[in-house]
Fold this sequence. Notes:
Strands 1, 2, 3, 4, 5, 6, 7 and 8 form an eight-stranded mixed β-sheet that branches. This protein has a single domain, classed as 3-Layer(aba) Sandwich (Rossmann fold). The protein is 40% helix and 15% strand. Strand 1, helix 4 (84-87) and strand 2 (92-97) form a beta-alpha-beta unit. The protein has helices at residues 14-22, 29-41, 45-65, 84-87, 100-110, 127-130, 133-139, 158-171, 192-203, 213-219, 233-236; strands at 70-73, 92-97, 116-120, 146-149, 177-184, 224-225, 231-232, 255-262. It contains eleven helices and eight strands. It is of the alpha/beta class and 264 residues long.
Amino acid sequence: MNERVDFQIDRPNPGRVYDYVLGGSHNFEADREMAEFMISLVPSTRKWVRMLRAFLQEAVHLLVEEGFDCFLDLGSGLPTMEHIHSVAPHARVIYIDIDPIVVAYSREILGDNPRVRYLQADMKQPHTYLNAPEIQELFGDQRRIAIGFNGISPFFTAEEMRHVMHALYEWAAPGSKMFATFETKEPDKMTPRMAQFLSMFEQMGQPFYFYTFEECQQLVRPWQPDWRGFQPLVRWLHLSDDYITEEDREGVGIEFYGVILEKP
């Protein structure tokens, strides 16, 4: 018997809000209103979010070329708009999200794709998914894994990030890699609109944290950047240096970095 799921279309849902900002169609009016409010506070949101998805696609292409065929993705949101399984259709992919509505809707979207699983689990608590039977079912004994940590760093405290990075490092086999992004700003800068943006996340029970570039480099340990190192997303995506304007930095020096980390 199929379990009935209430998609609560009258209340915004993070996965559907993200889908809307990406230009997708798996969203409702409440999601669109929330997204537009976020964009009114931080107008560069749409540009940055689309760069995050483009980085995911670029990183997956690179890792497939390196021979990876197992992907574990944290905080996945809806599997739309060319997510991992679309970019690498022959790979085995496990998506993870804590939101039961996102998970239920995602499973409907994925249908009976035998190479993909979607787990409801807390990305901040690795034991809730690393020990899941679906891992063994889909990956078998393979632990040389590509891990996705894309667009989620602001939702971790420093302590939470250290915990997850260490747990994933211990679990993964040597040769594993992680593609990750980090949103940074200058620590001494704040504007009223940015403060309201951060307050909005606080009120939703999901605080949003910016880190400095130096903090990000420390927080990923014991993972090590591969030969490409940390780079602004504009460089990863081969965009012109002026693609991100001073206005896009929202008066606080916003920068988004991408990196492919490895366990030697």
